Amino acid sequence: MKTYDVSNSDVLLDRAKSVIPGGIFGHYGYSVRDGSPSFFSRSQGAHFWDIDDNEYVDLMCAYGPMILGYNNPVVDEAARKQYAAGNTVSLSAPAMVELAEMLVDMVSDMDWALFGKNGGDSTALAVMIARAATGRNKIVKVHEGYHGVSPWMQDGRPGTIETDIEHVTTVPWNDADAFESLISESPGEIACFISSPYDHPVFRDNELPAEGYWQKMEQLCRQHGIVLIVDDVRSGFRINLAGSHVEYGFTPDLICFGKAIGNGYPLSALMGSDALKETAQEVFFTGTQFFNAAPMAAATATLKELKRVDAAKQMTDFGNRLNTKLVQTATEQGFDLVASGIPAMPYYRLSNVSMKGHFAWIDQCVRRGVYVLGHHNHFVSTEHTDADIERICEVAADAFAALGSVEQYQRKTG
Ligand SMILES: Cc1ncc(COP(=O)(O)O)c(C=O)c1O
């Protein structure tokens, strides 16, 4: 199998580096690797093409938004219609009310919605509402749980100061006892517990909730007046359209959505229960672009489409078929591939080679036209097909073959 030439991407990346710090910044910066494309020229369905005109089966879906595939005609038409009528206008659009009604109707236990642009808007607002409602400072989150880039979420990265995380404490995933101990150490001080519905860290296998975990967490939150926030920014609409909490059998107070909600149009939402509605009205959280109407129209169309095609089930079935075939492909070549997390967001790890070896295999897949990442969970969309599974496995097998047997592979990659 021929490997791709990405020289146009490399040239443009050099140009970018002279005018943009790092060339490509933020989380997209992590995917800049030798032999990997940096810039796209076009996209369609579950595929994109780089600026050297190489085609990729995309298993990242832009880190999650593209749940119905690139250029979905129904969503794009809804956005186009709203753009034609007006996008950023001095008044709110009816599209905002229609979207809120759709969300309240669709997501269980939630009575209202507020809107922002990125997932980090909804998590920041959720925490502010929890603090305002309880009059408490402390935020409890899971170790390495990612909730966006506000300083309190950054775990001491450059540009943040100690006091930013002074009131943030972490507990291990799936450890309700640790949370209970924390509550007894600081009675009446914890405003909220914020967590994704299952653990999807980077560089580690992803982990589902243990039996009874969420029920115990909910009981502790209720007992101690702690606001329970589910950060469904990444996994929202991929587990259960009524909310991931429905699948795991518990009731949160606030749910954060982002990423897939508008199929790529910039929008996020915070949803909450009636008990927090008044506080939500008092907290001041806004932005110039928060009222863009086209992304709201696109989001309503996205949610309707997700419902119409039974997207969560479709992606779960696809993810299961993909994982089974890919693990089998690896086994046939002497490699052990672990697929963790939910099937619609699989995290892959080769368990009988080093992390460096795993990354070498990932790079070989990318060079042959399957866009995967070594450190992050993947995302499937409703547009991925069984032909894509065939292609992915064909590329994966060739990528293994290019590196030789496990022994040779380890000698080469260390
Ligand atoms: C679980 C989770 N919460 C919040 C965020 C922040 O979302 P955004 O990057 O849209 O601000 C992300 C982004 O990856 C996320 O995965």
Task: Give a brief outline of the structure.
By secondary structure, the protein is α/β, with parallel strands linked by helices. It has helices at 7-19, 73-85, 94-106, 119-134, 176-185, 213-224, 244-248, 277-282, 293-308, 311-332, 355-366, 386-403, 406-413, and strands spanning 40-44, 47-50, 55-58, 112-116, 138-142, 168-171, 190-195, 227-231, 254-257, 268-272, 337-340, 347-350, 370-371. It binds pyridoxal-5'-phosphate.
> What Rg, in angstroms, do the CA atoms define?
22 Å
Strand order of the largest sheet: 4-10-9-8-7-5-6
* Average pLDDT figure: 96
What is the overall shape? globular
Can you tell me the CATH architecture of the largest domain? 3-Layer(aba) Sandwich
CATH level-four homologous superfamily name of the largest domain:
Type I PLP-dependent aspartate aminotransferase-like (Major domain)
Q: Quaternary arrangement of the chains shown? A: single chain
Note down, in words, how this protein is organized.
Helix 2 packs antiparallel against helix 9, helix 3 (94-106) runs parallel beside helix 9 and helix 10 packs parallel to helix 12. Strand 2 and strand 3 form a beta hairpin. The longest helix has 22 residues, at 311-332. This protein has two domains: 7-70 and 310-413, Aspartate Aminotransferase, domain 1 (Alpha-Beta Complex); 73-308, Aspartate Aminotransferase, domain 2 (3-Layer(aba) Sandwich). It starts with 6 loop residues before the first helix and ends with a helix. The protein has a seven-stranded mixed sheet with strand order 4-10-9-8-7-5-6, with helices on both faces. The protein has a four-stranded mixed sheet with strand order 1-2-3-13. It has 414 residues and is α/β, with parallel strands linked by helices. It has helices spanning 7-19, 73-85, 94-106, 119-134, 176-185, 213-224, 244-248, 277-282, 293-308, 311-332, 355-366, 386-403, 406-413; strands at 40-44, 47-50, 55-58, 112-116, 138-142, 168-171, 190-195, 227-231, 254-257, 268-272, 337-340, 347-350, 370-371. Bound molecules: pyridoxal-5'-phosphate. Pyridoxal-5'-phosphate is lined by residues 118-120, 123, 146-148, 196, 231, 233-234, 258.
